[in-house]
């Protein structure tokens, strides 16, 4: 069965007026039994809780729809989702009129624009190419600032020796170095490029959130090495739960304390490239123990219906957020 934004509303899945996302939780989640809420606390002892966010590509299923981002914002508003993460590559334009339209659509519908997920590759021996990547990143920092987005997703880049991204996924993200170069060379290139972006990040007030997106930053040790070398408050981490293919929980614990943003993968219907059986009860407990209060963002990469799967996944996250984090005294 196909689900659209309007069909959910027409069918009344959102529940009675004012029920918001809690109504969706009972209607759309396969596990309708909600866990007992965390013990009540006084206002002085309240522990802030993460907000729910959805990537635009989760709802668009990687389609390039000229109106896709605006539709994603409206869908988030209809479903009571707090924010969206915009995939830069899906933007049909960087024209100021278009960007301001997105910003106003989000504001008027009570949806935050939480992150601009961009692509770049700093792992390249050619200085001219790296400089183009620096300039691209700086332009995206300024774009995020213009749209009122407080963070961009940052990639370190890969060695590019396996061919296509599909080939890299078949190799489980493992690739040989470029012949004649060392890991130290790669880290040096990445650190130098990020350092050149820091003044713009600081001027714009936009955090660069370094993701465990394969390559040099594909391990906690690599991410920490880059962050410690750059040594700036404008460089944080972005955790993608689906990009640690082996022993993910120990790796999540190593970086969550410095995360500005997290993306949580689900794979209903089988993954586009692979599937992981991730224990979100355990993962969100790790977030709680680290006092993570930012966005918990869905990145759906399965083959099932993206709308229905996104709702199921977000309800799963909400279930465990409710389990570990206290409710606010103002409801």
Please give a handful of descriptors for the protein shown:
eight-stranded parallel barrel; 331 residues; 12 helices; alpha/beta; disordered N terminus; globular
Plain-language structure description:
- With 331 residues, the chain is of the alpha/beta class.
- Helix content is 43%, strand content 14%.
- The chain has an 8-stranded parallel β-barrel with strand order 1-2-3-4-5-6-7-8, surrounded by 6 helices.
- Helix 9 links the parallel strand 5 and strand 6.
- The longest helix has 22 residues.
- It is globular, with a radius of gyration of 20 Å.
- The two termini are 34 Å apart.
- The relative contact order is 0.16.
Distance between the termini: 34 Å
Structural class: alpha/beta
**Rough shape?**
globular
Beta-strand residue fraction: 5-15%
The total beta strand count reads 8
Biggest sheet features: 8 strands, parallel, barrel
What's the quick description here?
The protein is of the alpha/beta class and 331 residues long. It is built from twelve helices and eight strands.
Ordered list of secondary-structure elements with their pairings:
Blueprint: H1 5-11, H2 20-28, E1 51-55, H3 56-60, H4 68-79, E2 83-87, H5 96-108, E3 112-117, H6 127-147, E4 151-154, H7 165-170, H8 183-204, E5 207-211, H9 220-230, E6 235-240, H10 248-255, E7 259-266, H11 280-289, E8 295-300, H12 306-324
Parallel strand pairs: 1-2, 1-8, 2-3, 3-4, 4-5, 5-6, 6-7, 7-8
Helix pairs in contact: 2-12, 6-8, 8-9, 11-12
């Amino acid at each position: 069965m196909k689900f659209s934004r309007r069909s959910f509303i027409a069918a009344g899945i959102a529940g009675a007026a004012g029920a918001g996302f809690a109504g969706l939780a009972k209607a759309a989640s396969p596990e309708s039994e909600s866990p007992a809420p965390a013990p009540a606390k006084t206002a002085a002892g309240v522990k802030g809780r993460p907000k729910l966010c959805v990537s635009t590509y989760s709802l668009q299923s990687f389609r390039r729809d000229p109106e896709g981002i605006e539709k994603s914002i409206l869908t988030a508003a209809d479903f009571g989702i707090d924010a969206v993460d915009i995939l830069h590559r899906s933007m049909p334009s960087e024209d100021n009129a278009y960007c301001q339209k997105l910003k106003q659509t989000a504001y008027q519908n009570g949806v935050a624009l939480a992150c601009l997920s961009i692509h770049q590759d700093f792992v390249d021996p050619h200085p001219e190419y790296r400089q183009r990547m620096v300039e691209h990143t700086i332009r995206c920092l300024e774009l995020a600032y213009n749209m009122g987005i407080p963070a961009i997703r940052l990639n370190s880049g890969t060695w590019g020796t396996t061919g296509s991204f599909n080939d890299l996924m078949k190799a489980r993200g493992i690739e040989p170095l470029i012949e004649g170069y060392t890991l130290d060379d790669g880290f040096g290139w990445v650190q130098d490029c990020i350092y050149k972006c820091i003044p713009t990040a600081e001027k714009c007030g936009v955090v660069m959130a370094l993701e465990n997106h394969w390559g040099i930053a594909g391990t906690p040790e690599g991410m920490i090495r880059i962050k410690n070398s750059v040594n700036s408050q404008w460089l944080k981490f972005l955790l993608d739960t689906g990009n640690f293919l082996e022993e993910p929980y120990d790796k999540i614990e190593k970086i969550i304390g410095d995360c500005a943003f997290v993306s949580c993968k689900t794979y209903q219907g089988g993954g586009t490239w692979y599937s992981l059986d991730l224990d979100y009860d355990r993962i969100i407990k790790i977030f709680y123990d680290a006092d993570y209060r930012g966005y918990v963002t869905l990145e759906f990469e399965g083959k099932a219906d993206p709308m229905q799967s996104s709702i199921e996944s977000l309800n799963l996250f909400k279930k465990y957020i409710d389990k570990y984090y206290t409710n606010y005294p103002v409801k």
